[in-house]
Design goal:
Number of strands: 2
Largest sheet: 2 strands, antiparallel
Structural class: mainly alpha
Strand order of the largest sheet: 1-2
Helix content: over 70%
Distance between the termini: 50 Å
Shape: globular
Radius of gyration: 23 Å
């Protein structure tokens, strides 16, 4: 296995983003001037380093979340009951391992689709990976189940402002529109994932040579360890994250906002004690959470577990730091890949490349539009930046006066192709974090996931084409 494989892949991607500024002129859409094309603005070496600083400034909270997830499992790995829990699950699914993986894929895909939990779900990845490896499957299978299911959820995103905000603000769509189409995409993509994972896993299982290493704690000598406190605490965290990231405003539910306001307004001798103690704002209600709030919950949960299992505070700090150290590389990589986003945002050249493709036809062409959405997603990292960098030009200059059906097609294409991109892109946060944690080379992942990727692209293009004909 080559060292620093993913680091090299990300550096190559950054280099490509920089090279684009040397080859193509700057272009962007302006509401006042329309399509604007300017002279080349080459990115130099020192500018790249400044972009690293910008990436850290704006996206370090993602790396911090990854570190805290690592610290959380650093605590769990020192508690024998955690290994006991893993063994119980493995034993409970003997000869039905496929069922466990299917359940996980369905849950992760649905939560990514319905609640925008693509990044917060990283909290559950090490646990699921440990169980899958303990069942005798290889690392690729574990990555397919975890990172793969999140990508599938993004393909068929439903009811999630977090996932579709960039598209919605540009073309005037809504995340709760065209639900049946999006659910259909989710079901078809999920079925393809489950089929491919089960087919692959059958050929890559060895129960005699388990992939343990730092993924699975040492075997428990005593069977008296009670694992239910871990289950309860992790379930509570999981439920909190689900409630916190669901877009409640879509359903006109204001319970959480009203409840938080009541708490913040509570005063003792005219002093807002809870507002000062927690440092929360009214915008921090469930439905508006970010990874910052999720990180706090994980920190509290890790301490609570250590307290329940009577771990000394000094040991808690040591074990948490040890776990965070193991997560340091994934954390650094996921922040570093945002340098690509900074480069294509500060010196925009992608529209120069996309413009000739988009002009090949008079109306929306599902093939060229899908290609543009896919490539833009790779370089823009997040769908918001991918959509807002291209779609304003598309809807204001290329295809003016779009009908409702056309808006639906555009929305579905961009959302679905973003999900497909996150399955293979070297700028996919969830994918890179997972591959780094499992020490899977990028090329090996592409080889393993290639069949599913092609199946998804073909099926999606067929669905897009049918949508344009209806």
């Amino acid at each position: 296995m080559k060292k620093h494989n993913l680091f090299k892949v990300i550096m190559i991607t950054i280099a490509i983003a920089v090279l684009l500024t040397w080859l193509f002129p700057v272009s962007y859409f302006s509401s006042s001037a329309g399509f604007v094309e300017e002279a080349r603005q080459q990115i130099g070496v020192f500018e790249v380093m400044s972009y690293v600083g910008i990436a850290v400034q704006y996206f370090s909270h993602i790396g911090i979340y990854v570190l805290i997830v690592g610290g959380f499992y650093g605590i769990l790995h020192k508690i024998p009951a955690y290994r006991s829990l893993i063994d119980k699950i493995v034993k409970g699914f003997i000869e039905r391992e496929w069922l466990f993986m299917t359940i996980v894929m369905v849950i992760f895909a649905v939560l990514s689709s319905m609640a925008g939990l693509s990044l917060p779900l990283l909290f559950m990845f090490p646990f699921v990976i440990a169980v899958i490896l303990a069942m005798g499957y290889d690392k690729i299978t574990a990555a397919m189940v975890t990172a793969g299911s999140v990508a599938i959820g993004l393909i068929g995103s439903v009811f999630s402002i977090n996932n579709t905000y960039g598209i919605d603000i540009v073309i005037g769509s809504s995340p709760d529109a065209d639900v049946l189409v999006k659910v259909l995409l989710l079901l078809i993509a999920l079925a393809l994932l489950i089929f491919n994972v089960i087919t692959y896993s059958k050929k890559h299982r060895d129960t005699k040579k388990l992939v343990e290493g730092s993924y699975i704690p040492e075997a428990v000598r005593s069977k008296k360890e009670k694992s239910w406190p871990i289950v309860v605490i992790m379930d509570i965290v999981f439920v909190i994250l689900i409630l916190a990231f669901i877009s409640w405003s879509l359903f006109e539910i204001t319970w959480f906002e009203e409840a938080l306001k009541s708490v913040l307004d509570f005063k003792i001798f005219e002093f807002p004690i809870f507002e000062a103690l927690f440092g929360l704002l009214e915008e921090s209600a469930f439905g508006y959470w970010t990874l910052v709030e999720a990180s706090v919950i994980l920190l509290l949960a890790s301490w609570l577990i250590s307290f329940v299992y009577k771990m000394k505070f000094t040991d808690y700090i040591t074990n948490f730091i040890d776990g965070a150290k193991r997560a340091l590389k994934p954390a650094v990589l996921v922040v570093l890949l945002y340098v690509v986003l900074v480069a294509v945002t500060y010196i925009p050249t992608l529209l120069t490349i996309f413009n000739p493709l988009l002009k090949l036809t008079q109306g929306i062409n599902v093939f060229t539009m899908s290609l543009v959405a896919f490539v833009s997603s790779i370089f823009s990292v997040e769908l918001y930046y991918a959509a807002t960098g291209v779609l304003p030009y598309v809807v204001n200059i290329l295809y003016t006066g779009l009908e409702v059906g056309d808006i639906t097609v555009l929305s579905v294409i961009w959302q679905a192709m973003y999900g497909v991109a996150m399955l293979v892109a070297p700028t996919s946060v969830v994918l890179i974090a997972t591959l780094s944690y499992l020490h899977i080379p990028y090329g090996k992942w592409l080889k393993a996931i290639g069949k599913l990727f092609l199946e998804l692209v073909v099926v999606l293009l067929i669905i897009f084409t049918i949508m344009t004909l209806m």
